[in-house]
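Dear all,

This email documents one entry for the complex benchmark we are building for the journal club exercise. For each entry we list the sequence lines for every component of the assembly. Then comes the predicted three-dimensional structure of the complex as a token string, followed by one or two observations. Please use this as the template for your own entries, and keep the labels exactly as they appear.
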Amino acid sequence: MHGQQAGQWGWLLAVAPAAPLAASLILAAFGRRLSARAVAWTAVTAVGVAAAAVAGAVAVYLSGGLLRLAPAGWWWQPGSQAPGLGVGLQGDGLSLWFALIVTGVGFLIHVYSVGYMAGDPGFARYFAELTYFLFAMLLLVLADGLMGMLLGWANVGLASYLLIGFWHHRPDARAASMKAFLVTLTGEVGIVLASGMLWGAAGTLRFAELAERAGGLSREVAVAAGLLLLWAAAAKSAQLPLHVWLPDAMAGPTPVSALIHAATMVTAGVYLTARMHPLYAAVPQASLAVAWVGAASCLFGAVVACGQTDIKRVLAYSTMSQVGYMLMGVGLLAQMAGLFHFFTQAFFKALLFLAAGLVIHRLQGEQDLTRMGGLARSMPLAYWATWAGALAMAGIPPFSGYFSKEAVLEAAWSRGQTGLWAAGTLAAGLTGFYSFRLLALAFLGPGRGPGGSRGVQQAATAAGHHEEPAVLRRAMEVPVAVLAVLSAVGGLAWVPGRTGWVPRMLEPVFGTTAAHGPAGEAHGAAGAVGWLPVALAAAGACLALYLYGPGARAAGRRWRAPAGLQRALAEGLYVDLAYRRTVVEAVVHLGAWLERVAETVWIDGSVRGVGALAALLSSLLGRAQAGPVRRYALGLLAGGAAVVAWAVWSTWSAG
Amino acid sequence: MPPHGWPALWLGVGALAVLVAELALPARRQTVLPVCAGLAAVVLAGSLWLAGQAPVDGFTRLVFGLVALAAAAALVLAWPQLDPGEPAAFVALVLLAACGMGVLASSTSWPALFVGLELLSLSLYVLVAYRREDRAAQEGAFKYFVLGSAASGLLLLGIALVYGSTGTLAFPREPVPASGPGGSLAAAGFALVVVGLAFKLALVPFHFWAPDAYQAGTLGVTAFMAVATKAAAFAALARVVRVAPGAVLPALWGLAVASMLAGSLGALRQRDFRRLMAYSGMANAGYLLMALVDRSPQSMTAAAVYLAAYAAMTTGLFAVAALAEAATPAGAGPLNRAGVEEVARRAAAHPAAPWLMVLFLAGLTGLPVTGGFVGKVLLLRSALQAQATGLALSLVASTAILAYPYWKLAYRALRPGREGALGEPGEPAAGAVGVAGQPGLPAGVAGSQGAPGLSAARPAVVRAWLALGWACALVTVALGVMPPWLMR
């Protein structure tokens, strides 16, 4: 840890969440009265201010300062009796690493949204909610203790709920928002329970103090808290078995999917597990559980993504898979590798979503891959952006995903976790397949489906949809271009021996043991092992292009998977169905039973009983009150006698 | 008189000045007096308070300030009802009562305590009976006087016993030991002193006078009794308890629990606004007693916060009641014996009154962002730190019970058109709206209820009441948001 200097820059940390919050409040209060232009400027400016504040904080941090902003104390704590509970802000490397991505990518997506959401009747509401999300997310990552983090955590959940259900006239959006809210809420329960345990055992919820005291925790507490936090992380980060909300969450507007459900909020679980690294370092079993949950989700998401036909659901499952890599890295205590992958994934996943958004926008809401195709020529920017994103996601060097994914897999290999490495490597091959399957289905070959997407597209053009103002089109295109460049070169942030942004930011937090450089660093994993994931990904990509590419249809060899497999993949391997059959039905039946028995008999009965008791006692008292003055005097004297007798008796009995 | 009491004496001087001034002023200007006297009281108390010349300790200073402000509030609230009577006498009595309270709160010897208590009691007996034409007021004042005399007698007996066992008329510096030859004598004496003060605090079972007396007084006098008397008596009780033998404490907790529970249960059935406030006051006095559990400075901070919040919320509620009165068109009469329903219904006719009422009731219920919440949290904490779980549970139960009558009142104020929605047969909705439609109501109705001055002074007075309500609201919220700043 650095010293406590740079205190004079602590306000930067407050500016970052405060600016979006202010914008959100303004837009919520006056949004309807403002013009669309004013709404857009308010939101974008606020996020820009937040991004600048974070950039300033990073600069201060890199120059050797640790930023802190602790409030004077809770207002109901005049004596400040519980120092570990306050909500302050801190800006160490990990927090700023996340804040940088949140505000940077957030800024680009706000700009994109100006074009994407133009003309929507809920334009102001959209930006009020999106800036509110940004406020909550910054609170989450900048809080200096579990208490503040939980506040942010709950608020991003609410923002996510609002934004998934943004088009609340659609029943599927309403259902999806409720599902996401409930599933992630179970994670909050995990945090609350873990916080209670840690507060009881360590006497603080501040990260810095927890880090010092984590080693002294009893094993049981550490394991239980670690697993509860893992539960919370899995719920928020859409990891097995709590991933079911993420694909449905794609019912929200596409920029929301890009920002919240790909780049930032779903990585909150990664942040949480990385933030609690002293705890996980103390109990290797718990951290290994984190890694295995990540690996399983990584593989699962990759498999299911291969069978999805909705473009956004493909990306949703790919997010689950990529977040799995991050958790694997964090669980292996190679946090820097995992967080590096968070960094690159934020770029290429946001890029893929935004490119998909361009396609969806052009096709007037069409999201079915099987009805797309042949868009490469008419949408060159989206096409090439998807190329960049797909190459990055598949981990083809020198695109960004290669460096970070290799860092994670290298960490697994070098730590002897062959199983994790194998799962990750297999998933890498599948990543190549589904990335290029998406690319091929959407952009290559002739238009598919009835009428083909050309027809849809022409209809869209004829409807004048294409003739939106140039400024709005540019608002969408510029962020895509920027993200495409970042996806391509983002991996250069950490090329061992050459650049070291990642270690510069994160090494002060995690120490050098968490540093596992990308492939090629001297850990003995070079060579075949290091190149195998790349080779598999390339093979998967080639296979996808072969099966779905331009030549496939001409040759009449459009490959179809066996029907059973296809259905299983489309259904997400029936996890949803299993939930419905077990948890949902059980809860519904329990609720019905509770309403029938507990609600009417126990609760109503006891409430009425208490009320009746109070009324009875009250009427007895009222009878005593209604008397004439001599009875009052009797009460006074009897009471006085009783008090005196009690006091005197107490003296005697005391000795 | 001990030197500690001297700032309070200025209030007595003020009272005499008012009486003299009455002779000099022309008869029709006499309603101006209350304002002048009230302002004088506030300025005097405020300047002494700020100058730090007020006696003893911070808590006493707080109580002294509360007493002065409550006296001013009482004058403002009572203003329109003074006219057919002796306004100057009323003002002088209020100031004398405040003087007695100041002496009582800052007393450090038994004679000062007794003189202060008697001064405030005798003034209040007369104030309660101020509406001479009202038989109910006479009855309430009579009960108050008879029972109060008995309580004073007990107190005097207690002082005698304490003097007999300690041999000095000054308060002891250390807690009096309960062992030894005079031990039980001292315990009995302190117990009787506690009884005498508990009577003023209206602790159960010494509360019987309170509902009748509260109902008998005008709004101003009742608010004054509910706030200032309790504050002063509590300050004196705190000082007595600090030096009392430990044997007295269990009985005190018994009083606290009984007051909290009986006060809240009694409030359940009240249909009269002032009787409701009487019971609410009993319960609140019980809460305050919790702060005496461990006799520590920290718990006195809790008591200070809660007392200030209680004073603001209760005074504010009375100001809202006064506004409700003002919302009635001329001829409908004052709310001297108004039921809860009617207060709420009339308050609803005023734009701000229902919301102020909701705020004060939220505070009394202990909801966050009000001083009531912070005060209750602090009181609970001091009780729990002293292992007094029973007291803490009583506070919670009592608050829960009181929520019903409080929120019934708030509900009626917010939804005046929906009587009976809570399952109670409401009175026919004749109140504000109905009467407003009948400007030609016979003037005799107003005259028979005895407040023709209401219409004369209305705009200025109503503004003053509204300002009082907002000031109380501000204090309530300020205490809820930043008690640490205010308590430093």
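Observations: Chain B touches chain A through 52 residues (CB under 8 Å). Chain B is about 75% helix and 0% strand.
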